[in-house]
Structure formats: C-alpha cells, structure tokens
Request: fold
Amino acid sequence: MSKTKISVQLFRSNHHQDNEIKLGERLIKLLRIPTDQPIQLAIGSFRQEVRIIPGKKSTVLRISPSLSSSSGLLPRSTLNVKYNAIDKLLRLGPVIGVMISRYDPDEPSKPFGSISSFCMEMVNACQKLGAYVYFFTPEMIAPDLLTLEAVQYDEDWKKGPVPIPDVINNRLSTRKLENSPSVQHFMKEVKSRLGTHIFNEKFLDKTEVFDALGSNEKLKKYLPESYSLKSYPILKKMCTAHSTVFLKPIRGSLGKGIIRITRQENGSYQTLTTSLEGIKKNSYPSLPKLFSSLSGKIKKNRYQIQQGLNLVRLHKRNVDFRALVHKNKKGRWSLTSIVARIAGGNHYVSNLARGGSLSTVKDALATSGIPPAAKLSAGARMERAALDIAKGIEEAIPYHFGELGIDLAVDTTGRIWLLEVNSKPSKGDNAPLNVQKVRPSAIRLVQYSHYLTGY
Reply:
C-alpha cells in the first residue's frame, strides 16, 4: 500500500464530472492509481466511486464542490492519502472526531467552553500533520448512527454533516453524559459496524485504579495505603495507622469534596473539606462522632480513604506533579510533560481550579529539602513511574486509552507516590482562539490517530 500527504482543493469545471478527481501525474505514479477505471474513494465512513483525472499540480488533490459537500471535506484541508490496489480504494484521512459536551454558536470566542483553545490547537495540528478533525456533541449524532452533524473550522466555526470518523477522542466532561444510553449505543455501534477506533472511552474511578494497580508487584511501591470507605472499622484502621488521612470522592474531579482528617494530640479529630466557597473546618471529640458525621456522605457517595503523606512543600504550600502521557506515533506510551502544581491560598489541594499555580519540576524541588541524590533523580523517576503506571492501567483495565493525566507526589525522603489517574486530563486554557501555538498534547493525539489508522 502506498501513502503520502496531500493538500485538498476545490475546482469547478464544465469539462469534468462531479465524481472525477484531479491528481498530479507524479502522485498518480507514486501511489500507483489507475486512471483507466473507476476506484472507490473513502473519507471516514463516506464511500463513493470516482475516476482519477491526471493534472499538473503534484501536491494537490482537487475535488468538485459537490463531492466536497457530500463527503463533508473542507476545501483547504491537508490530509494523508493512501491507495490499496487490491481493494481499489483511495483513502483520505485520518478523520478524527472529538466528542465534546457543549457547543454554543452564540459564544464565538469560546464556542466549546474551557476547551475552545484546545479545539483550535487540534485544527492547527491536523493542518500541520495531515488529518481532518471535527467536534461533535451527543446531540449531533443522527438516529441511524451513519451520519453526524459536527463543527469544523474553515476560516470560522461551521456546523454541517460529516461522515463517521476513523478515530474518536472521547472528551465528554461528565460521567452522566458519557454513560447515557445514546452515547454508549453510538460508541458500540461505530466500533462494531465501521471499525472506528475510540480512545479514552471512559472515566476512571479512584478505587478501580488502585485495585487494578495493587495486584502489580512492580507498581505497589507507588501506592499509598488506600481502601474504599464502607464502614467504621476501615476508618478506625486508617486513622489509627496514620495521623492524617484523606477521603476522596471516587468519582470526584477538580479537587471537589476532598476531606482531610487529622488526629490531634488530645485524641480529637479535625476535618478540612474543600468546597466552592473554600475550606470548611470542623472538629470532633472522638472517631465515632466523626464517623457519625460522615455516614450521610458515605451513603450518598462512594469515598476512597487514603494514607496521608509527608509531601514536599514550596513556600509552605503543598506541591504535587501532573505527568501527561500519550500513546505516540508508534503506539507506545511516552511522556509529554511533567509540571509541578502548587496549592493556592489556604488550600491543601493543588488543582488549578482551586487557585493553584504551575511551576517546573526543578524549581518546585529546589528548596524541598529532600536528599540531593533523590532531588537530582526525581524527574527521571517520575517519568518512569508515569510510564509504568500507564502501562499498568492498560494491562489491567479493559478499555482503550491514548492519553492519561497521572498525578504524582514526592515525600520528604524523595519517594514517589501515585495520587490518582485521570482519563480526561484538563485542556482548559485562557489563551485566545487565534493563537497559533500548538501544545505537544495536541500533536500527540494526531500522531496516535495516524498510528491507529495506518497513515
């Protein structure tokens, strides 16, 4: 099978039929495409019989407005093209669909909310690397599952019909939407009927992650003691063993609802709870009293109880580290970035949504007080931990992931710990939409789509 990258243009001619495609003679020879017989054109799930007409331009594929409209293909796209002589199939792509939670055409500067800048970066990355990307919400899925309406960028954001993509990146931001019957049915059908690749298929629960990794001897060293909090004996066991423990909503995000429990010198207990208003502080004379106050929360939501760690601090603020890992163009897990996240104000969680800030790993560890040798090796050890954890997730949890945000911590001895794994790492950014900079994460997502589709 021959393949290359090519630009797509529209042409209007009274001398050619709508199903005819102009292609440079050099590319026709390179791809070994016959010009004396019809072939099949494929763009995502779109199929049409076409004829190839030799042209002069060697790096441009020219199609009619009619064919562009029926295939959903934009006239100034840059795609990869490959030809399979056995099937007589000319395929353009990859077609990447990003499934998102919201689209608001009345907000042209932020039509996709907090991920609008990321969406623009994906457009630019696809133009650079050769791919065709669009963005769609569950409401845009047609009942027959064979066609979609989606939003594409062509000098502006425009909504229109598109084929089912070759690859779907699930960026839905809520479990409720992701678990809706219509979304689950759509994902199941396009995978089975069309062979569509879907990655980051689901949110990860904290207990699910720790249970999966806990059976891996290689990864146990990264895991703080942790259990699903179901009863008083578990709370008593953890609070007896550790002076500080954390209760984390199993399906929580952005640091919401995390409770820190600290045993005081007089035997009483203090709790600090994150909320939209800030930190709420409460005191309890005994552990049974504390459990009684928690029982209502435990009945409504599942919590993970986790060992408190003596972590490094910067300017008296807690620090953790977000490692972003992606499947690369060879289909292997690779590190994209590691940044330090510093808790803001009086918060003990470092999420940016809670007023946290970012720093380099080097600067965050510079005044940490950990042993010099551990400080020098911390970056490399965090990279190794992130990659090992990503591989462990892939081996133990039977879903397809192409991108993971892995939250790590370093204690005062230099030991590395896993805090949690996020299958929908934040893409929020305050950058304006017209910024041309493309973050490495967008590049990695397109490269992995190339790998999945063989381009």
